[in-house]
Write a structure and sequence with these properties.
Length: 754
């Protein structure tokens, strides 16, 4: 009925030029057409409803369930249609052209009338080019073609509804504008594209809707829009018509974010779960607090755990049902834009976690969307994700691949996102991922690689980098797949082109370094190689060093909680580890709460323990000291190109001593593009080592300490090297000159030329 925004009036007399007496009976519908319209199974309702010129005049038919009468209004015309039963009204008017007409619908016995437009008098509102691109699976702005779009069509305002449902026998739009009864709103099929379309006049921003889909077996399913750009707050799950009114103010950021390649720039990331960072805050409230906090600590970027809509908060956003909608838990899509805008204006880049690996089985979402497998693979063994009780996408289907590739660009274009961290890439790449022998089928070459997923990831990366300059894609990939961050057109030894990501999480470094750090210092010498092995492969990919949410939940303990010893030693180990991490080749990522040594694991229910930083808390200084260290790490890091400019080039790194297992010492040099060095020395023993000799480049006149994680202001014992250290002509570590310094207990020291 689509009567949003109607004009109500009483049935006062109106001019009846040509009145009802000129309306003849229309040809009756066939029983089959009537049944298909009433059951939502007709593929072309516009051929039967609306106005059509026939030999005897203008035939007009309307389907208005529950209406008492329907009158056609046009210039000089007021004609009441004949009732056919079941909500059908029709008649033949003595006209030779189709006028611009409205309908006057009476629903109540008291004569109340509603004047509305007839949705079935409009031509299709989706163009041939859109349909061609959808059919080819190449519509890079798919969100502008499918979904619900407020618009003016043939000079009438309303909303165009479109949905891809190729297996459906029929589709109807239901919503709060038709009392959730779609009988009067059947959509038309736009041919072989599998797309269904209906323009509903009078429906606008804020309207709730779903699609009533008639499955191939004739049964019905009520579905949220896969392309919905706004949703109800869970557990409600209707889609919401929306249009953006946000005015961006981040022009300077957007103009310059592509000035320097990410792998040659400082990149220090604070990972955030928005819903629990400060529980209860909206996007707009977060826009006040989060940018200020992150900027104060010196991080260059935030990474937001998935913000796409998801029904179960306990999934942390990793089981997505609304791929095009920021979660409504904290506000509207424009509210989320406001948050991104605020971060950009503070000079902070924004990455979001993106989850194209799987989706949940909720019966109102994507699973068997139109009655058959559609977004998921048709082979049940390929469709069911073995670990998470979810479904895997069919990457070999061009429309599904288009849905995901367009989604990646959507976040970057519509929300100015600066990077996508792609979740669970390994589960996409391998056909035998978490599957036993006999539970998977080899690819056409007899291998275990998912060739469709490889092609999808390559297309996604190529499209994002082409369309969105300055955006970076980051792979969470835990295997030794060759060429994750190699260009897609460069074929590797395995016969595959690169996947085309900009960066890759270094899961090996994370696992090995945390394994080392959790051992008591007396045992660390037996695990020394766990800290040095990462340099064997450090330049095989462009890496991010992640201490993410996954490492501080489910019994794994917080970062400081992993460390051995008493409370002082735990914090010292924590600080020394962060110093080692920030100096190691690769970008950094730290999850919220770890920047101030939270002792408890993270919980999405209450977020970080901010009370630890309350001045009234006795141990507040211990936690504030660690946070002060993180601020200084970021400050020195950002000002020292040696720590980031050549992260992906072996000439930017040199061991001084990688074999000091007995001392638990790791000493290495980092170089910037001009050859200027920084010396990092990490000491993971709880003793002080005086006059510790290290070979250094002979060209440096003197070294000065620029950061020491044992400083008193960080909660350390304040064993420092306060004076410049001048090299001596004493050979050491294969170099003709060396320095002697004091190594604090459980600490990392950074030195650079005076």
């Amino acid at each position: 009925m689509a009567d949003a925004g109607p004009r109500k009036q009483t049935a006062a007399p109106r001019p009846r030029a040509g009145g009802s007496h000129g309306v003849r009976a229309a040809r009756p519908l066939t029983d089959g057409d009537r049944e298909r319209l009433l059951t939502g199974s007709h593929h072309d309702p516009h051929s039967l409803l609306g106005a059509h010129l026939v030999r005897s005049g203008l035939e007009l038919r309307v389907l208005r369930p529950y209406a008492q009468s329907v009158t056609v209004l046009a210039k000089g015309l007021r004609a009441e249609l004949h009732e056919e039963g079941d909500g059908f009204f029709s008649g033949v008017l003595p006209l030779r052209t189709v006028p611009e007409y409205q309908l006057l619908v009476t629903y109540d016995d008291d004569g109340t009338e509603i004047e509305v437009q007839d949705p079935y008098r409009f031509l299709p509102s989706l163009g041939e080019l859109d349909l061609h691109l959808i059919g080819e699976g190449r519509h890079e702005e798919l969100w502008k073609a499918l979904g619900a779009h407020p618009m003016a069509h043939e000079q009438v305002t309303g909303t165009r509804f479109t949905v891809w449902a190729p297996n459906a026998r029929g589709v109807r739009v239901v919503g709060d504008f038709n009392y959730w009864d779609g009988t009067g709103c059947p959509m038309r099929s736009l041919g072989s594209s599998g797309v269904w379309e209906l323009f509903l006049p009078g429906v606008g921003d804020g309207a709730l809707y779903k699609f009533d889909i008639t499955r191939p077996d004739g049964s019905h399913t009520l579905r949220a829009d896969p392309m919905a750009r706004r949703t109800e707050v869970p557990p409600a799950n209707a889609s919401i018509v929306t249009e953006s009114h946000h005015v961006w103010h981040d022009e300077e950021w957007m103009a310059h974010r592509a000035d320097r390649p990410v792998h040659e720039a400082p990149f220090s990331v604070y990972e955030v779960h928005l819903a629990s960072w400060r529980p209860g805050l909206t996007y707009r409230q977060l826009a006040v607090q989060l940018p200020a906090y992150v900027k104060d600590l010196g991080f260059t970027h935030v990474e937001l755990m998935p913000v796409a809509e998801h029904p179960f908060g306990g999934s942390w956003g990793y089981q997505v049902t609304g791929f095009y909608a920021p979660t409504s838990r904290m506000g509207t899509p424009d509210d989320f834009r406001h948050l991104v805008d605020a971060l950009h204006r503070a000079g902070i880049g924004v990455l979001v976690d993106w989850v194209p690996a799987h989706f949940p089985k909720d019966d109102w979402a994507l699973a068997e969307f139109d009655g058959r497998t559609l977004y998921e693979h048709e082979d049940p063994a390929r469709a069911a994700h073995p670990d998470w009780g979810t479904l895997e996408f069919d990457y070999g289907r061009k429309e599904v691949r288009n849905f995901l590739v367009a989604n990646a660009t959507y976040w970057c274009q519509e929300f100015h996102i600066d990077g996508l961290r792609v979740d669970a890439v390994a589960s996409m790449l391998y056909l035998d991922y978490s599957r036993e022998q006999g539970e998977w089928t080899p690819n056409e070459h007899g291998g275990r690689e998912n060739l469709d997923a490889v092609a999808f990831l390559q297309e996604m990366n190529a499209t994002v980098y082409r369309r969105c300059p300055g955006v970076v894609t980051v792979a969470e990939e835990s295997t030794a797949w060759d060429g994750v961050t190699r260009a897609t057109h460069h074929v590797g030894p395995g016969g595959f082109g690169g996947l085309g990501f900009g960066l890759k999480w270094n899961m090996g470094w994370m696992h090995d370094s945390l394994g080392y750090a959790t051992h008591e210092p007396v045992h660390r010498k037996f695990h020394h190689n766990e800290m040095t092995f990462s340099m064997v492969y450090a330049y095989s990919e462009n890496y991010v060093l992640p201490i993410s949410h996954d490492e501080v939940v489910h019994g794994k303990r917080s970062l400081v909680g992993k460390m051995p010893g008493d409370w002082w030693q735990q914090r010292a180990n924590h600080r020394a580890y962060l110093g080692f991490m920030w100096a190691h080749p690769g970008k950094q990522l730290l999850f919220m709460g770890q920047e101030f040594a939270q002792g408890a694991e993270w919980s999405e229910g209450h977020g970080p323990d901010w009370w630890l930083l309350d001045p009234s808390y006795a141990a507040e200084a211990d936690h504030r000291g660690v946070r002060d260290l993180v601020r200084d790490l970021n400050t020195v890091y950002g000002a020292t190109p040696a720590l980031w400019q050549q992260d992906t080039d072996p000439v930017g790194f040199a061991w001084v001593d990688g074999d000091a297992a007995e001392d638990n010492v790791f000493a290495f040099l980092r170089y910037d593009a001009t050859g200027a060095p920084l010396l990092s020395v990490s000491h993971f023993s709880p003793v002080v080592r005086h006059e510790y000799r290290l070979g250094v480049p002979e060209a440096v006149q003197a070294w000065t300490e620029v950061l020491n994680t044992d400083a008193a202001r960080y909660g350390g014992s304040d064993v420092l090297n306060p004076d410049p250290l001048k090299p001596e002509s004493v050979p050491s570590h294969g170099r003709p000159t060396s320095i002697q310094l004091t190594l604090p207990p459980l600490a990392t020291v950074w030195l650079r030329p005076v």
